[in-house]
Design goal:
Blueprint (H helix, E strand, L loop, with lengths): L11 H9 L5 H8 L4 H9 L4 E4 L5 E5 L6 H5 L10 E8 L2 H10 L5 E8 L17 E10 L6 H20 L3 E4 L3 E4 L2 E10 L7 E10 L18 H5 L5 H20 L3 H11 L6 E6 L2 E11 L3 E6 L4 E4 L4 E3 L2
Parallel strand pairs: 3-4
Antiparallel strand pairs: 1-2, 4-5, 5-9, 6-7, 7-8, 8-9, 10-11, 10-14, 11-12, 12-13
Helix pairs in contact: 6-8, 6-9
């Protein structure tokens, strides 16, 4: 005699209890369970590390959740147009960007690849990105470009905007963007975005956008050389930050901005970047082609890069592919 298939957990209990902030009201809870056994549902989630409590009015609140990410929680009811159509969570990988390249080869646009740990994570100019297991969000998404108008630089800006908006939404922290791909809180880097192009195949052009976010990294876990410039969301929020909620918010915002880019509205992305810029109107020093230049940031050109008014008056544009902000 065959054993009956185990009932799939009702992930709406987890997501709605978290996103409501105050738990699920009795009337809504009754609709969600719809004649099922609530105690069985709670027990099934307890085996995964989620814990619930009954409220005084008969509702349900979530009191604890596991350190690890579950793809089902991140994916539940995202209603994604593209980004987040498919969600995977891996334990340890070389790089989520490498896995996303494989998804692109299979034609799976929008697949969101998360990992708890990377052994060869990378940033701009070949820099490494390291994070202790369960402490960060490490994700990559392959995107199919509809035409030549969608450039890697625009996707990088959109990715940074999406992360900054998601951080603000889920933690209420004032996240800013330091051109072109860093997200800062209180002047410290909490996230970086990397976009890599794939060799065109069958007339298609793919980009992979990857992001790393320091969510619950302890200060002592940062390498000594970046301890004064890097930060973690939990440091500034004064509490552990829910990585799954943040992951859902990032996918939603990236999906929104990808639709804007596909519609040819790069100007809207630039406007959003300007609104969150940490350097617009300030004096900075950049390094490009082995030389350093100091000037005031007067604009961001979405086609060419950062616009500086240099000492002496001339204006110069610096491309993100060959420019680093020094100070």
């Amino acid at each position: 005699m065959k054993k009956p298939k185990a009932k799939k957990p009702n992930w709406s209990l987890v997501v709605l209890a978290k996103e409501s902030g105050g738990g699920i009201a009795p009337q809504r809870l009754e609709k969600i369970v719809a004649g099922g056994d609530l105690d069985d549902e709670i027990a099934a989630f307890a085996r995964r590390g989620y814990h619930f409590g009954k409220t005084s009015d008969g509702g349900l609140e979530i009191t604890g959740w596991p350190r690890r990410l579950f793809a089902e929680e991140i994916a539940w009811d995202l209603a994604a147009s593209v980004v987040g159509r498919r969600v995977e969570v891996h334990w340890t990988v070389s790089s989520t960007n490498d896995l996303a390249r494989g998804e692109a080869a299979r034609g799976r646009e929008g697949a969101a690849i998360f990992a708890e740990e990377q052994t060869a994570g990378r940033g701009r100019f070949g820099r490494t990105w390291r994070a202790p297991k369960y402490s960060s969000l490490l994700l990559s998404v392959p995107l199919l470009c509809p035409g030549a108008d969608v450039e890697a630089e625009g996707v990088m800006l959109a990715g940074a905007v999406a992360v900054a908006e998601a951080v603000c939404e889920t933690t209420a922290l004032a996240a800013e963007i330091r051109w072109p791909n860093d997200v800062l809180v209180e002047g410290r880097k909490v996230s970086g975005v990397l976009v890599e192009g794939l060799a065109p195949a069958n007339g298609q052009r793919w980009l992979v956008v990857g992001a790393g976010v320091n969510v619950n990294v302890e200060e002592e876990d940062f390498p000594a050389q970046i301890r004064d410039t890097a930060g973690s969301l939990s440091q500034f929020a004064g509490r552990r930050v829910d990585r799954a909620l943040l992951a859902r918010a990032i996918l939603r915002r990236l999906d929104f901005w990808w639709e804007i880019l596909r519609a040819g509205q790069i100007g809207r992305v630039s406007d959003a970047w300007r609104a969150k810029s940490s350097i617009l109107g300030t004096f900075i020093t950049v390094e490009s082609a082995g030389k350093r230049h100091t000037g005031r940031v007067v604009d961001l050109d979405h086609h060419f890069g950062l616009v500086l008014q240099l000492a002496g008056g001339p204006t110069r544009v610096f491309a993100p592919s060959e420019t680093t902000i020094i100070s």
